[in-house]
Design goal:
By secondary structure, this protein is of the alpha/beta class. It is about 30% helix and about 15% strand. Bound molecules: 2-keto-D-gluconic acid (8YV).
Amino acid sequence: MGANGSPERIELLVYGPRKPTIDNGFDDGFVLHHCEQHADLERLAPAVAGKIRGMAVTGLVPCGSAVQALFPKLEIISTFGVGYDHVDTGHARQHKVVVTNTPDVLTEEVADVALGLLIATLRDFVRADRHVRSGLWATQNFPLSAGSLRDRKVGMVGMGRIGQAIARRLDASRVPVVYHSRRPAAGVSYRHYPDLIEMAKEADTLVIITPGGPSTDKLVNADVLAALGPRGVVVNLARGSVVDEPALIHALKSGVILAAGLDVFANEPHVPEELRALQNVVLLPHIGSASVVTRDAMDQLVVDNITAWFAGKPPLTPVPETPVEGR
Ligand code: 8YV
């Protein structure tokens, strides 16, 4: 209770880019503080930090143990996005802080973009567009594309919710699918390869949609790319960290593989000049989930998790590393 007998308002930190759905999503039982960037946290007065009970993490800002330690009263970190490799869930669990993410609401959107990026990469859509815009078509036909979806076998790296949505789209396109993940996915009939190199030898296309973080760091390395071979195509919608980026650039330059479609990079938003100069790549600025409708649903889920928590209910989408008991 406050000094006048009214209930204390709940102090939240909105950490990351400003989002209207989040800024306007809480009723007046909450007080919002904002830090758009990691560096701004230093300017937060200790008296304010000491009162923060919930954090809405609105983008891929670092939320490791040092950040979490600034907030001794923290109960919940509600992060935007299905991937949460920017949040130290081990530290959160140790300090009984629940972490939530925003799965499901982006699944079909990201799967749509995966298939679009795969086809754009194989069939050279970006260069074809430039061919028309430049006026060249009047004098020159656009060359036949070296790649096609027709003669491909896709090896999915990851077969979670989004992986399965991508595989369904590939089924509809009559493209054979196999997959690699640490354990076979429940209820999935595609052939599972425990060994990524074995799968890369059998497939000619990798679609990467596995969580980031230490367990998948540089999983797709020079050996995997060599196993994929000269018809090889890599599409990455997961995290840049999953691919050894210098090895990928080398493979694309030297013909070890044919092409790549990338929505994510090792050091976003910085993309190496060497990669930007290549013709056999399609590069997207991490837009897998970035439509108005889907981002709004993700923002809303960030709000709903916090609202549920402070209403004494279970959070809607806690991550498995921080299970919630007793609600
Ligand atoms: C967002 C994502 O682009 O859900 C994820 O894991 O990578 C994306 O949907 C990301 O959170 C950037 O804000």
